[in-house]
Design a protein that fits this description.
Length: 270
C-alpha cells in the first residue's frame, strides 16, 4: 500500500470497503472540507479516539489521534526497534543463550561464538553479525516464537512440513528478515500514521502489548506456507517475503480482524 500525501497532516490510502461502517462524530477538523466525515470506528472500539476520512476517487484520507496507552506502547516498541545487538552486554548474551536452549534444550552450547549456530540457520559462527539488519528485537522475536509456539517454531526450524527444496531458506536469517519487513510495513518511525495498516496495528497494540511479536509469528508461518506452495528455492526468498507482506496487509485490513489472534493465518500456529 503506497500512501499519497495530501494536506492537513493526513494521507490518502486505497479505499477500504469497511470504511462505511464508521459512524459520524462531532469533532471539528479545519483541514478537512465540509464533505469529509469524522468517525469513530465502531468495529475498533473506543481505543481509536478519532479517525477522519474523505473519499477521493479510489483513496480515503485517514487521520488518527492516538490514545495515551497507544502512545506509550508505541514509544516502547520504537525503543525496542532502536536497540542494536551488543555482544558485550550481559543481557544480550543471556538472550542469545536463552534462544539456543529454547531451540536445542538437550544440547550444550559450547560458547557464544561457535559453529553450532550454523545448524539454526545463521550465516556463520557468530550470530551477532546477522542481527545488524534488524537489531536486538529480531533476537527477541525469535525467542518469543520459540517459547510461545514451540511446536510451530520447531516445525519450521526442522523443515518438517511439506516437500522441501534442495536449497532451503536459512531459518534464523529468515527470521531477522521477517522482523525487518514488519518494521517497514508498520512504518513505526513516522510521527503520525501514514497508512491505514499502521493505524489498525496501533489499535491491536493497545489490546496486546505483544502484538508485534505475535504478528511476527504469524508472518513466519505465512512465509513458510507460501514457500511450500510456490515450491520456492533460496533465490526466490525476497519474492516470497514480498508476498508474505502482501498477505499480512490483506488480513490486517479485514473487517472482523480486531486482534492479531483474529487474523485467518493465526490458525497456522500450533
Amino acid at each position: 500500500m503506497s500512501p499519497e500525501r495530501i494536506q492537513g497532516g493526513c494521507v490518502a490510502v486505497p479505499s477500504i470497503s469497511h470504511l462505511s461502517s464508521f459512524s459520524k462524530c462531532n469533532h471539528s477538523h479545519s483541514s478537512l472540507s465540509d464533505d469529509s466525515t469524522c468517525g469513530t470506528p465502531v468495529w475498533r472500539g473506543k481505543a481509536l479516539t478519532c479517525v477522519c476520512f474523505k473519499g477521493k476517487g479510489s483513496h480515503a484520507r485517514v487521520c488518527v489521534n492516538l490514545t495515551p496507552l497507544q502512545e506509550e506502547r508505541l514509544k516502547r516498541l520504537r525503543h525496542r526497534t532502536k536497540v542494536q545487538f551488543d555482544a558485550s552486554r550481559p543481557e544480550h548474551q543471556e538472550a542469545l543463550r536463552a534462544l539456543w536452549y529454547a531451540t536445542y534444550p538437550d544440547q550444550e552450547l559450547q560458547c557464544l561464538v561457535s559453529d553450532q549456530w550454523k545448524q539454526m540457520g545463521w550465516q556463520g559462527k557468530d550470530p551477532s553479525t546477522d542481527f545488524r539488519g534488524a537489531g536486538f528485537i529480531s533476537l527477541e522475536n525469535l525467542l518469543f516464537f520459540a517459547k510461545t509456539f514451540s511446536l510451530s517454531f520447531q516445525g519450521l526450524l526442522r523443515k518438517q512440513e511439506g516437500k522441501r527444496a534442495i536449497w532451503e531458506y536459512p531459518f534464523a536469517v529468515a527470521g531477522v528478515n521477517i522482523t525487518f519487513m514488519i518494521m517497514q510495513m508498520l512504518d513505526l518511525d513516522a510521527t503520525k500514521p501514514r497508512t491505514f495498516i499502521r493505524a489498525v496495528f496501533l489499535q491491536m497494540l493497545s489490546e496486546n502489548e505483544w502484538a508485534f511479536d505475535l504478528l511476527y509469528c504469524v508472518a513466519f508461518m505465512i512465509m513458510d506456507k507460501l514457500w511450500l506452495e510456490k515450491n520456492a528455492t533460496y533465490m526466490e526468498f525476497n519474492d516470497i517475503l514480498k508476498s508474505t507482506r502482501s498477505q499480512l496487509e490483506k488480513e490486517l485490513l479485514m473487517e472482523d480482524v480486531l486482534r492479531i489472534e483474529d487474523m485467518p493465518s493465526y490458525s497456522l500456529l500450533y
